């Protein structure tokens, strides 16, 4: 590990737990956002781009904390979520998760102000099945004198979702250099960023 990569790692660790404000007036296209960042900040050398790509290769698996019915689920690509019954979806439907509070790797995390803006990530899932879960015994009442307990079995409905795509695109809308380098390091860089020297 050279000095540039070591210095970049220290900057990335310092920039962990960043609070991202949810902005309503976002830029229209990604290229326009990139040109604004380039004009407002000094240019980044190609060696820094190589360091970003090296860190991306070192951390290929990215996790995200998504919320379904106000319950958090920490997922990666290929995971299967067993959640409560979602009556609005059928088997085979594609779901995009827009309530994500945390995205990161083992050494770096990106946290939002309650939730991260959906323009920073793209996480989808496919509904595998709408079925019944395991039977649960519920206690209804207890008769103290007879010393008997009345129980009833219940079988709740569940929905199984497979995470199909995990953090596959990124729109850079922030003008902070540390946040820019941090986002490029832990998230997958889009195709239009490959030939551009920031």
TrEMBL record:
GO MF term set: structural constituent of ribosome
A single cellular component GO annotation: mitochondrial large ribosomal subunit
InterPro entries per record: bL21-like, bL21-like_sf
Pfam family, one: Ribosomal_L21p
Superkingdom per UniProt: Eukaryota
Sections of the chain in a coiled coil: none
Residues annotated as transmembrane: none
Xref: PANTHER family: 50S RIBOSOMAL PROTEIN L21, LARGE RIBOSOMAL SUBUNIT PROTEIN BL21M
Family: Belongs to the bacterial ribosomal protein bL21 family.
Protein name in UniProt: Large ribosomal subunit protein bL21m
Natural source organism: Rozella allomycis (strain CSF55)
